Amino acid sequence: MHPPLTLHRHPMCAEIIEQFQKCHIDHPIAKFFGQCTELKIKLDRCFREEKALKRKANFEKSKILKERIQAQRQEMTKKGLE
């Protein structure tokens, strides 16, 4: 299974998505017998790469947010002690 093949949600994989969809249109029966399998494998790899990049970006954002929250907590603790 793959996520919905919407181009706006997967800009990195747009070209492969278009090729995969075209393959399914051009080969309505043969798609069940592996005609589009190579494109499916490429698509899966692209989705994995895309997900890894998003995961890394989200991790960096969360790291920054944690640091900001930690700084605010320390500031609040200092104000409470004064």
Features:
mainly alpha, rod-shaped, Cyt_c_biogenesis_Cmc1-like, COX assembly mitochondrial protein, disulfide bond, mitochondrion
3D architecture notes:
The protein is mainly α. Helices cover 71% and strands 0% of the residues. The protein has helices at 14-26, 37-81. α1 (14-26) packs antiparallel against α2. The protein is rod-shaped, with a radius of gyration of 22 Å. The N and C termini lie far apart (58 Å). 5% of the residues are buried.
Can I get a quick summary?
With 82 residues, the protein is mainly alpha-helical.
Helix content percent band: over 70%
- Helix run count: 2
Q: Termini separation (Å)? A: 58 Å
Radius of gyration (CA) equals 22 Å
Percent range for β-strand residues:
under 5%
The unreliable regions are none
Give the helices and strands as they follow along the chain: HH
Mean pLDDT value: 90
Main location: mitochondrion
Keywords: Disulfide bond, Mitochondrion
Family: Belongs to the CMC family.
Organism: Elaeis guineensis var. tenera
